[in-house]
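Design review, sub-item: ligand-bound model
Attendees: FS, YL, KQ
YL presented the inputs for the beta-D-fructofuranose complex:
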Amino acid sequence: MLLGLSVLSNITQADQPRPVYHFTPRAGWINDPTGLVEVAGTYHLFYQYYDGGWQLKDGRFRSPIEWGPMHWGHATSTDLVHWHQMPVALSPDRKVGSSEVEGMIFSGSAVVDRGNTSGFGSRAHPPMVAVYTLADTFGPGSGQRQAVAYSKDNGTTWTKYAGNPVLPYNNTETFRDPQVFWFGGKSKWAMVISCGDRVCFYNSPDLTHWTRVGEFGKAEVGIGVPWECPDLFPLQVTRNGKTEKKWVLVVSVQHGAPSGSFGNRYFVGDFDGATFTNSAPASDARWLDYGSDYYAARTWIPAQANLKQRISIGWMANWTYARTLPATTYRGSMTVPRELSLRYDGAGYYLAQRPAPGVLRTLSSRKASIKIDDAHRSKSITTSTVAELDVDFAVTNRSGRFEIDLFKTGTQYVSIAYDVPKAEISVDRRNYNGHRFETDSGQQTAHVTPRDGHLKAQVLLDRNSIELFVGDGKITVTDLIYPRNDRVQTAVISTTPRETRGVLQ
Ligand code: FRU
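KQ shared the predicted structure:
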Protein backbone atom coordinates (compact mmCIF):
# COMPACT_ATOMS: atom_id res chain seq x y z
CA MET A 1 0.00 0.00 0.00
CA LEU A 2 1.54 3.30 -1.09
CA LEU A 3 2.82 5.30 1.86
CA GLY A 4 0.80 3.00 4.08
CA LEU A 5 -2.17 5.31 4.15
CA SER A 6 -5.35 3.85 5.52
CA VAL A 7 -7.42 6.11 3.33
CA LEU A 8 -6.62 3.81 0.42
CA SER A 9 -8.24 0.76 1.90
CA ASN A 10 -11.60 1.38 0.26
CA ILE A 11 -10.54 1.54 -3.36
CA THR A 12 -12.40 -0.56 -5.85
CA GLN A 13 -10.74 -1.69 -9.05
CA ALA A 14 -13.01 0.39 -11.22
CA ASP A 15 -12.08 3.67 -9.56
CA GLN A 16 -9.79 6.26 -11.02
CA PRO A 17 -6.43 6.01 -9.28
CA ARG A 18 -7.24 7.52 -5.93
CA PRO A 19 -5.16 10.34 -4.48
CA VAL A 20 -2.95 9.03 -1.70
CA TYR A 21 -2.53 11.91 0.73
CA HIS A 22 -5.52 14.06 -0.23
CA PHE A 23 -8.84 13.47 1.44
CA THR A 24 -11.43 11.61 -0.65
CA PRO A 25 -14.71 10.11 0.56
CA ARG A 26 -15.12 6.36 0.66
CA ALA A 27 -18.00 6.69 -1.82
CA GLY A 28 -20.40 9.35 -3.04
CA TRP A 29 -20.06 13.01 -3.94
CA ILE A 30 -18.30 15.74 -1.94
CA ASN A 31 -17.93 19.48 -2.20
CA ASP A 32 -17.15 22.17 0.40
CA PRO A 33 -15.16 21.45 3.54
CA THR A 34 -17.24 22.75 6.43
CA GLY A 35 -17.42 22.72 10.23
CA LEU A 36 -13.63 22.73 10.58
CA VAL A 37 -12.77 22.55 14.24
CA GLU A 38 -9.79 21.20 16.16
CA VAL A 39 -10.49 19.49 19.48
CA ALA A 40 -7.55 18.38 21.63
CA GLY A 41 -5.28 17.68 18.66
CA THR A 42 -7.97 16.05 16.52
CA TYR A 43 -9.00 17.86 13.36
CA HIS A 44 -12.65 17.43 12.47
CA LEU A 45 -13.43 17.74 8.78
CA PHE A 46 -17.11 17.88 7.91
CA TYR A 47 -17.99 18.22 4.27
CA GLN A 48 -20.86 18.57 1.83
CA TYR A 49 -21.82 15.02 1.01
CA TYR A 50 -24.31 12.95 -0.94
CA ASP A 51 -24.32 9.26 -1.72
CA GLY A 52 -27.71 8.59 -3.24
CA GLY A 53 -31.19 7.60 -2.22
CA TRP A 54 -32.83 10.99 -1.78
CA GLN A 55 -35.40 12.73 -3.90
CA LEU A 56 -35.03 16.43 -4.58
CA LYS A 57 -37.90 18.90 -4.87
CA ASP A 58 -37.99 18.34 -8.64
CA GLY A 59 -38.87 14.71 -7.93
CA ARG A 60 -35.63 13.36 -9.39
CA PHE A 61 -33.31 11.02 -7.57
CA ARG A 62 -29.74 12.14 -8.08
CA SER A 63 -27.01 9.57 -8.78
CA PRO A 64 -24.74 8.78 -5.82
CA ILE A 65 -21.80 10.57 -7.44
CA GLU A 66 -23.73 13.69 -8.37
CA TRP A 67 -24.49 16.75 -6.22
CA GLY A 68 -27.78 15.95 -4.49
CA PRO A 69 -29.62 16.52 -1.22
CA MET A 70 -26.73 17.61 0.92
CA HIS A 71 -25.57 15.93 4.12
CA TRP A 72 -22.60 16.64 6.33
CA GLY A 73 -20.05 13.85 5.97
CA HIS A 74 -17.44 13.62 8.71
CA ALA A 75 -13.81 12.54 9.02
CA THR A 76 -11.15 13.10 11.67
CA SER A 77 -7.37 13.21 11.65
CA THR A 78 -4.54 13.96 14.02
CA ASP A 79 -1.92 14.63 11.34
CA LEU A 80 -4.06 16.07 8.51
CA VAL A 81 -2.97 13.23 6.24
CA HIS A 82 -4.55 10.02 7.57
CA TRP A 83 -8.31 10.45 7.77
CA HIS A 84 -10.65 8.33 9.80
CA GLN A 85 -14.06 8.13 8.19
CA MET A 86 -16.83 8.80 10.69
CA PRO A 87 -20.58 8.22 10.41
CA VAL A 88 -22.50 10.84 8.44
CA ALA A 89 -23.09 13.69 10.88
CA LEU A 90 -26.20 15.42 9.55
CA SER A 91 -28.83 14.23 7.06
CA PRO A 92 -31.70 16.27 5.65
CA ASP A 93 -35.12 15.88 7.19
CA ARG A 94 -37.58 13.93 5.06
CA LYS A 95 -41.15 14.93 4.48
CA VAL A 96 -43.24 12.71 6.66
CA GLY A 97 -44.11 9.48 4.80
CA SER A 98 -42.04 10.49 1.76
CA SER A 99 -38.51 10.30 0.41
CA GLU A 100 -38.62 13.98 -0.52
CA VAL A 101 -36.16 16.25 1.21
CA GLU A 102 -37.41 18.82 3.67
CA GLY A 103 -34.26 20.94 3.89
CA MET A 104 -30.81 20.08 2.65
CA ILE A 105 -27.86 20.53 5.00
CA PHE A 106 -25.66 23.12 3.31
CA SER A 107 -22.32 24.47 4.49
CA GLY A 108 -21.74 26.11 7.86
CA SER A 109 -19.40 25.77 10.81
CA ALA A 110 -18.82 23.95 14.07
CA VAL A 111 -17.58 25.23 17.41
CA VAL A 112 -16.86 23.85 20.85
CA ASP A 113 -19.14 25.73 23.24
CA ARG A 114 -16.71 25.75 26.18
CA GLY A 115 -18.86 27.96 28.36
CA ASN A 116 -21.99 25.90 27.54
CA THR A 117 -23.68 29.16 26.52
CA SER A 118 -26.14 27.12 24.45
CA GLY A 119 -27.13 24.91 27.38
CA PHE A 120 -26.80 21.82 25.14
CA GLY A 121 -24.12 20.27 27.36
CA SER A 122 -22.36 21.36 30.53
CA ARG A 123 -19.20 23.26 31.36
CA ALA A 124 -17.60 19.98 32.37
CA HIS A 125 -18.67 18.40 29.06
CA PRO A 126 -18.87 21.22 26.52
CA PRO A 127 -21.05 20.41 23.52
CA MET A 128 -19.92 20.69 19.92
CA VAL A 129 -22.40 22.93 18.11
CA ALA A 130 -22.91 23.07 14.35
CA VAL A 131 -24.51 26.13 12.74
CA TYR A 132 -25.47 25.44 9.13
CA THR A 133 -27.84 26.40 6.33
CA LEU A 134 -31.04 24.52 5.66
CA ALA A 135 -31.91 24.95 2.00
CA ASP A 136 -34.65 23.82 -0.33
CA THR A 137 -32.77 24.93 -3.42
CA PHE A 138 -30.59 27.71 -4.89
CA GLY A 139 -32.04 30.87 -6.44
CA PRO A 140 -35.59 32.13 -6.08
CA GLY A 141 -37.54 30.35 -3.37
CA SER A 142 -34.32 28.85 -1.99
CA GLY A 143 -35.77 28.87 1.51
CA GLN A 144 -32.24 29.31 2.87
CA ARG A 145 -32.39 29.54 6.68
CA GLN A 146 -29.92 28.87 9.48
CA ALA A 147 -30.15 25.95 11.85
CA VAL A 148 -28.27 24.46 14.78
CA ALA A 149 -27.39 20.91 15.87
CA TYR A 150 -25.29 19.71 18.78
CA SER A 151 -23.17 16.75 19.71
CA LYS A 152 -22.31 15.56 23.20
CA ASP A 153 -19.94 12.83 22.01
CA ASN A 154 -17.31 14.87 20.22
CA GLY A 155 -19.04 15.09 16.88
CA THR A 156 -19.96 11.42 16.43
CA THR A 157 -23.73 11.72 16.81
CA TRP A 158 -25.82 14.84 16.46
CA THR A 159 -29.17 16.13 17.65
CA LYS A 160 -30.98 18.84 15.71
CA TYR A 161 -32.10 21.76 17.86
CA ALA A 162 -35.86 21.68 18.35
CA GLY A 163 -36.13 25.48 17.91
CA ASN A 164 -34.75 25.51 14.32
CA PRO A 165 -34.45 27.61 12.28
CA VAL A 166 -32.49 30.07 14.40
CA LEU A 167 -32.50 32.55 11.50
CA PRO A 168 -35.54 32.19 9.25
CA TYR A 169 -35.77 32.40 5.47
CA ASN A 170 -35.86 36.11 4.65
CA ASN A 171 -36.91 35.93 1.01
CA THR A 172 -33.40 36.48 -0.27
CA GLU A 173 -31.99 33.99 -2.76
CA THR A 174 -28.65 33.68 -1.03
CA PHE A 175 -28.44 33.55 2.73
CA ARG A 176 -26.05 30.78 3.58
CA ASP A 177 -22.83 29.21 4.83
CA PRO A 178 -22.58 30.76 8.34
CA GLN A 179 -19.12 30.78 9.88
CA VAL A 180 -19.40 31.14 13.65
CA PHE A 181 -16.63 31.81 16.18
CA TRP A 182 -16.19 33.09 19.71
CA PHE A 183 -15.38 36.81 19.61
CA GLY A 184 -13.43 37.30 22.85
CA GLY A 185 -13.37 41.09 22.51
CA LYS A 186 -17.11 41.25 23.18
CA SER A 187 -17.57 37.90 24.92
CA LYS A 188 -20.10 36.93 22.29
CA TRP A 189 -20.47 34.58 19.38
CA ALA A 190 -19.97 36.21 15.99
CA MET A 191 -21.24 34.97 12.64
CA VAL A 192 -20.21 35.93 9.14
CA ILE A 193 -22.64 34.72 6.50
CA SER A 194 -23.15 35.16 2.78
CA CYS A 195 -25.97 37.60 2.04
CA GLY A 196 -25.67 37.43 -1.73
CA ASP A 197 -23.69 40.43 -2.94
CA ARG A 198 -22.03 40.96 0.45
CA VAL A 199 -21.42 39.24 3.78
CA CYS A 200 -23.44 40.01 6.91
CA PHE A 201 -22.40 39.87 10.54
CA TYR A 202 -24.53 38.60 13.40
CA ASN A 203 -23.88 38.32 17.14
CA SER A 204 -25.30 35.91 19.70
CA PRO A 205 -24.90 35.23 23.41
CA ASP A 206 -25.88 31.54 23.09
CA LEU A 207 -25.65 30.30 19.46
CA THR A 208 -29.43 30.16 19.08
CA HIS A 209 -30.48 33.84 19.30
CA TRP A 210 -28.85 35.97 16.63
CA THR A 211 -28.92 39.73 15.96
CA ARG A 212 -27.75 41.33 12.75
CA VAL A 213 -25.02 43.88 13.51
CA GLY A 214 -23.33 44.76 10.22
CA GLU A 215 -22.27 43.89 6.71
CA PHE A 216 -19.28 44.18 4.40
CA GLY A 217 -18.60 44.14 0.70
CA LYS A 218 -20.90 46.60 -0.99
CA ALA A 219 -17.91 48.47 -2.41
CA GLU A 220 -15.65 45.46 -2.80
CA VAL A 221 -18.00 43.01 -4.37
CA GLY A 222 -17.66 43.97 -8.05
CA ILE A 223 -17.01 40.46 -9.22
CA GLY A 224 -18.28 37.04 -8.48
CA VAL A 225 -21.63 37.42 -6.75
CA PRO A 226 -23.10 35.77 -4.90
CA TRP A 227 -20.28 35.29 -2.48
CA GLU A 228 -20.28 31.93 -0.72
CA CYS A 229 -18.60 30.21 2.23
CA PRO A 230 -17.10 33.18 4.10
CA ASP A 231 -14.45 32.70 6.77
CA LEU A 232 -13.07 35.30 9.18
CA PHE A 233 -10.13 34.84 11.53
CA PRO A 234 -7.36 36.82 13.25
CA LEU A 235 -3.65 36.50 12.52
CA GLN A 236 -0.67 38.46 13.69
CA VAL A 237 1.72 40.12 11.31
CA THR A 238 4.97 42.02 11.61
CA ARG A 239 4.92 45.38 9.90
CA ASN A 240 7.90 47.73 10.04
CA GLY A 241 9.27 45.80 13.03
CA LYS A 242 6.01 45.94 14.99
CA THR A 243 3.62 43.06 15.58
CA GLU A 244 -0.05 43.77 14.97
CA LYS A 245 -3.24 41.74 14.86
CA LYS A 246 -5.33 41.77 11.69
CA TRP A 247 -8.45 39.93 10.56
CA VAL A 248 -8.59 37.96 7.35
CA LEU A 249 -11.92 37.64 5.56
CA VAL A 250 -12.08 34.94 2.87
CA VAL A 251 -14.98 34.58 0.45
CA SER A 252 -15.62 32.14 -2.38
CA VAL A 253 -16.54 33.95 -5.59
CA GLN A 254 -18.37 32.41 -8.50
CA HIS A 255 -16.89 34.40 -11.37
CA GLY A 256 -13.86 36.52 -12.09
CA ALA A 257 -11.24 34.66 -10.07
CA PRO A 258 -7.84 34.12 -11.75
CA SER A 259 -9.15 30.76 -13.03
CA GLY A 260 -11.69 32.76 -15.06
CA SER A 261 -14.49 31.37 -12.93
CA PHE A 262 -14.58 30.12 -9.32
CA GLY A 263 -11.99 31.01 -6.70
CA ASN A 264 -11.27 32.40 -3.24
CA ARG A 265 -10.74 36.11 -2.65
CA TYR A 266 -9.49 37.51 0.64
CA PHE A 267 -9.36 40.82 2.45
CA VAL A 268 -7.13 41.86 5.34
CA GLY A 269 -8.42 44.41 7.79
CA ASP A 270 -9.86 45.10 11.23
CA PHE A 271 -12.94 43.61 12.85
CA ASP A 272 -14.69 44.72 16.04
CA GLY A 273 -17.39 42.07 16.15
CA ALA A 274 -19.75 44.02 13.90
CA THR A 275 -17.72 46.00 11.36
CA PHE A 276 -14.94 44.82 9.07
CA THR A 277 -12.67 47.58 7.73
CA ASN A 278 -10.62 46.67 4.69
CA SER A 279 -6.97 47.80 4.91
CA ALA A 280 -6.61 47.89 1.14
CA PRO A 281 -8.51 49.80 -1.55
CA ALA A 282 -11.78 48.07 -2.49
CA SER A 283 -10.53 47.28 -5.99
CA ASP A 284 -7.38 45.50 -4.76
CA ALA A 285 -8.28 41.83 -5.16
CA ARG A 286 -6.12 39.26 -3.38
CA TRP A 287 -6.51 35.57 -4.22
CA LEU A 288 -5.82 32.51 -2.13
CA ASP A 289 -4.98 30.46 -5.22
CA TYR A 290 -4.49 31.05 -8.94
CA GLY A 291 -5.51 27.61 -10.18
CA SER A 292 -8.78 26.23 -11.49
CA ASP A 293 -9.43 23.82 -8.66
CA TYR A 294 -9.45 25.60 -5.35
CA TYR A 295 -12.81 26.56 -3.92
CA ALA A 296 -14.86 26.95 -0.74
CA ALA A 297 -11.70 27.10 1.36
CA ARG A 298 -12.07 27.48 5.08
CA THR A 299 -9.81 27.26 8.13
CA TRP A 300 -9.84 25.13 11.24
CA ILE A 301 -10.85 26.90 14.42
CA PRO A 302 -7.82 26.05 16.57
CA ALA A 303 -8.16 24.30 19.93
CA GLN A 304 -6.08 27.07 21.50
CA ALA A 305 -5.83 30.63 20.24
CA ASN A 306 -3.02 30.73 17.70
CA LEU A 307 -2.38 34.00 15.96
CA LYS A 308 0.76 32.81 14.19
CA GLN A 309 -0.89 30.50 11.73
CA ARG A 310 -4.15 29.00 10.66
CA ILE A 311 -4.70 25.75 8.79
CA SER A 312 -6.94 25.83 5.73
CA ILE A 313 -8.34 23.31 3.28
CA GLY A 314 -10.30 23.77 0.06
CA TRP A 315 -12.46 21.68 -2.23
CA MET A 316 -10.24 20.66 -5.15
CA ALA A 317 -12.66 21.22 -8.03
CA ASN A 318 -14.51 23.89 -9.93
CA TRP A 319 -18.29 24.01 -10.25
CA THR A 320 -17.85 24.62 -13.99
CA TYR A 321 -17.02 20.94 -14.53
CA ALA A 322 -17.08 19.26 -11.11
CA ARG A 323 -20.08 17.15 -12.07
CA THR A 324 -18.25 15.58 -15.03
CA LEU A 325 -14.94 14.69 -13.41
CA PRO A 326 -13.97 11.07 -14.08
CA ALA A 327 -15.54 9.01 -11.32
CA THR A 328 -17.01 5.64 -10.53
CA THR A 329 -17.71 5.20 -6.85
CA TYR A 330 -16.78 8.63 -5.49
CA ARG A 331 -16.36 12.10 -6.91
CA GLY A 332 -14.33 14.87 -5.36
CA SER A 333 -11.31 15.51 -3.18
CA MET A 334 -9.93 18.19 -0.90
CA THR A 335 -6.67 20.10 -1.34
CA VAL A 336 -3.84 19.41 1.06
CA PRO A 337 -4.27 21.22 4.36
CA ARG A 338 -2.16 24.38 4.27
CA GLU A 339 -0.63 26.57 6.95
CA LEU A 340 -1.52 30.21 6.40
CA SER A 341 0.49 33.04 7.91
CA LEU A 342 0.12 36.76 7.42
CA ARG A 343 2.94 38.91 6.00
CA TYR A 344 3.47 42.50 4.97
CA ASP A 345 5.66 43.41 2.00
CA GLY A 346 5.43 47.18 1.70
CA ALA A 347 2.68 46.93 -0.91
CA GLY A 348 0.22 45.44 1.54
CA TYR A 349 -0.70 42.41 3.63
CA TYR A 350 -0.76 38.97 2.09
CA LEU A 351 -1.21 35.36 3.11
CA ALA A 352 1.73 33.01 2.72
CA GLN A 353 0.85 29.33 2.43
CA ARG A 354 2.75 26.11 2.82
CA PRO A 355 1.65 22.49 2.96
CA ALA A 356 0.88 21.30 6.49
CA PRO A 357 3.98 19.66 8.03
CA GLY A 358 2.30 16.21 8.12
CA VAL A 359 1.95 16.33 4.34
CA LEU A 360 5.64 17.09 3.83
CA ARG A 361 6.65 14.38 6.31
CA THR A 362 4.55 11.91 4.34
CA LEU A 363 6.28 12.89 1.13
CA SER A 364 9.82 13.01 2.49
CA SER A 365 10.87 9.75 0.81
CA ARG A 366 9.30 10.84 -2.48
CA LYS A 367 11.08 14.10 -2.87
CA ALA A 368 13.05 15.16 -5.93
CA SER A 369 15.06 18.35 -6.16
CA ILE A 370 15.49 20.00 -9.53
CA LYS A 371 17.67 22.97 -10.30
CA ILE A 372 17.20 24.60 -13.65
CA ASP A 373 19.77 27.05 -14.85
CA ASP A 374 21.22 28.07 -18.18
CA ALA A 375 23.95 25.44 -17.96
CA HIS A 376 21.43 22.64 -17.53
CA ARG A 377 19.09 23.40 -20.30
CA SER A 378 17.51 20.05 -20.46
CA LYS A 379 17.27 16.91 -18.43
CA SER A 380 14.60 14.48 -17.48
CA ILE A 381 13.70 12.51 -14.42
CA THR A 382 11.00 9.98 -13.84
CA THR A 383 8.85 10.00 -10.77
CA SER A 384 5.65 8.36 -9.80
CA THR A 385 2.56 10.53 -9.76
CA VAL A 386 2.80 10.75 -5.98
CA ALA A 387 5.71 13.06 -5.28
CA GLU A 388 7.09 16.36 -4.10
CA LEU A 389 9.28 18.25 -6.54
CA ASP A 390 11.37 21.06 -5.17
CA VAL A 391 12.30 23.30 -8.06
CA ASP A 392 14.90 26.02 -8.14
CA PHE A 393 14.67 28.24 -11.20
CA ALA A 394 18.11 29.92 -11.25
CA VAL A 395 17.19 33.08 -13.10
CA THR A 396 20.54 34.51 -14.15
CA ASN A 397 19.43 36.21 -17.37
CA ARG A 398 16.80 38.85 -17.79
CA SER A 399 15.39 36.97 -20.72
CA GLY A 400 14.27 33.41 -21.25
CA ARG A 401 11.73 30.95 -20.15
CA PHE A 402 12.16 28.02 -17.81
CA GLU A 403 9.83 25.14 -18.13
CA ILE A 404 9.09 21.82 -16.48
CA ASP A 405 6.90 19.37 -18.32
CA LEU A 406 4.94 16.96 -16.16
CA PHE A 407 2.77 13.97 -16.87
CA LYS A 408 4.57 13.69 -20.16
CA THR A 409 3.56 11.14 -22.77
CA GLY A 410 4.85 11.69 -26.30
CA THR A 411 4.24 15.28 -27.23
CA GLN A 412 1.66 15.83 -24.51
CA TYR A 413 2.35 17.17 -21.06
CA VAL A 414 1.36 19.70 -18.42
CA SER A 415 3.82 22.56 -18.16
CA ILE A 416 4.93 24.71 -15.29
CA ALA A 417 6.83 27.64 -16.73
CA TYR A 418 8.49 30.80 -15.56
CA ASP A 419 8.67 33.63 -18.06
CA VAL A 420 11.53 35.86 -16.95
CA PRO A 421 10.74 39.13 -18.78
CA LYS A 422 7.10 38.97 -17.81
CA ALA A 423 7.90 37.71 -14.29
CA GLU A 424 5.04 35.24 -14.63
CA ILE A 425 4.67 31.71 -13.42
CA SER A 426 2.15 29.58 -15.26
CA VAL A 427 0.58 26.16 -15.17
CA ASP A 428 -0.83 24.94 -18.46
CA ARG A 429 -2.88 21.76 -18.67
CA ARG A 430 -4.34 22.31 -22.12
CA ASN A 431 -2.09 19.81 -23.88
CA TYR A 432 -1.79 16.57 -21.96
CA ASN A 433 -2.91 13.04 -22.48
CA GLY A 434 -5.81 12.84 -20.12
CA HIS A 435 -9.24 14.06 -19.11
CA ARG A 436 -10.39 17.23 -20.91
CA PHE A 437 -11.91 19.83 -18.64
CA GLU A 438 -14.93 21.72 -19.86
CA THR A 439 -13.23 25.03 -19.67
CA ASP A 440 -10.96 27.17 -21.74
CA SER A 441 -9.10 28.50 -18.78
CA GLY A 442 -6.58 25.68 -18.88
CA GLN A 443 -3.69 28.02 -18.28
CA GLN A 444 -3.19 30.07 -15.15
CA THR A 445 -0.58 32.72 -14.62
CA ALA A 446 0.54 34.79 -11.66
CA HIS A 447 3.05 37.56 -11.26
CA VAL A 448 6.06 36.71 -9.08
CA THR A 449 9.62 38.00 -8.91
CA PRO A 450 12.71 35.93 -8.11
CA ARG A 451 14.70 36.63 -4.98
CA ASP A 452 18.51 36.89 -5.29
CA GLY A 453 18.37 35.26 -8.71
CA HIS A 454 16.28 32.27 -7.64
CA LEU A 455 12.64 31.42 -7.84
CA LYS A 456 11.82 28.43 -5.68
CA ALA A 457 8.75 26.35 -6.27
CA GLN A 458 7.35 23.30 -4.54
CA VAL A 459 5.15 21.02 -6.62
CA LEU A 460 2.95 18.42 -4.96
CA LEU A 461 1.71 15.62 -7.20
CA ASP A 462 -0.92 13.19 -6.05
CA ARG A 463 -2.03 11.13 -9.03
CA ASN A 464 -4.64 13.52 -10.36
CA SER A 465 -3.59 16.91 -9.07
CA ILE A 466 -0.85 19.52 -9.02
CA GLU A 467 -0.47 21.96 -6.16
CA LEU A 468 2.22 24.52 -6.76
CA PHE A 469 3.61 26.74 -3.99
CA VAL A 470 5.85 29.53 -5.27
CA GLY A 471 8.43 31.49 -3.29
CA ASP A 472 7.23 32.01 0.26
CA GLY A 473 3.76 30.73 -0.70
CA LYS A 474 2.26 34.07 -1.70
CA ILE A 475 1.30 32.37 -4.95
CA THR A 476 -0.24 28.91 -5.11
CA VAL A 477 -1.77 27.19 -8.13
CA THR A 478 -4.01 24.16 -7.77
CA ASP A 479 -5.13 22.15 -10.79
CA LEU A 480 -6.70 18.76 -11.27
CA ILE A 481 -5.06 16.55 -13.89
CA TYR A 482 -6.31 13.10 -14.79
CA PRO A 483 -3.49 11.54 -16.84
CA ARG A 484 -4.10 8.32 -18.68
CA ASN A 485 -1.03 6.59 -17.33
CA ASP A 486 -0.09 6.30 -13.72
CA ARG A 487 3.68 6.63 -14.25
CA VAL A 488 4.87 10.00 -15.43
CA GLN A 489 7.99 11.18 -17.05
CA THR A 490 8.92 14.46 -15.59
CA ALA A 491 10.96 16.21 -18.21
CA VAL A 492 12.83 19.29 -17.15
CA ILE A 493 13.61 21.86 -19.79
CA SER A 494 15.13 25.25 -19.58
CA THR A 495 15.14 27.33 -22.71
CA THR A 496 16.52 30.69 -23.66
CA PRO A 497 15.21 32.65 -26.65
CA ARG A 498 17.85 31.22 -28.97
CA GLU A 499 16.96 27.60 -28.35
CA THR A 500 14.01 25.75 -29.65
CA ARG A 501 11.98 23.67 -27.26
CA GLY A 502 12.91 20.06 -27.00
CA VAL A 503 13.07 17.19 -24.62
CA LEU A 504 16.06 15.04 -23.90
CA GLN A 505 15.21 11.59 -22.66
C1 FRU B 1 -20.43 26.34 -2.36
C2 FRU B 1 -21.88 26.00 -2.11
C3 FRU B 1 -22.33 26.63 -0.80
C4 FRU B 1 -23.46 25.74 -0.40
C5 FRU B 1 -22.99 24.39 -0.86
C6 FRU B 1 -24.07 23.48 -1.32
O1 FRU B 1 -19.74 25.41 -3.11
O2 FRU B 1 -22.68 26.44 -3.18
O3 FRU B 1 -22.68 27.98 -0.92
O4 FRU B 1 -23.68 25.76 0.98
O5 FRU B 1 -22.10 24.62 -1.93
O6 FRU B 1 -23.60 22.19 -1.51
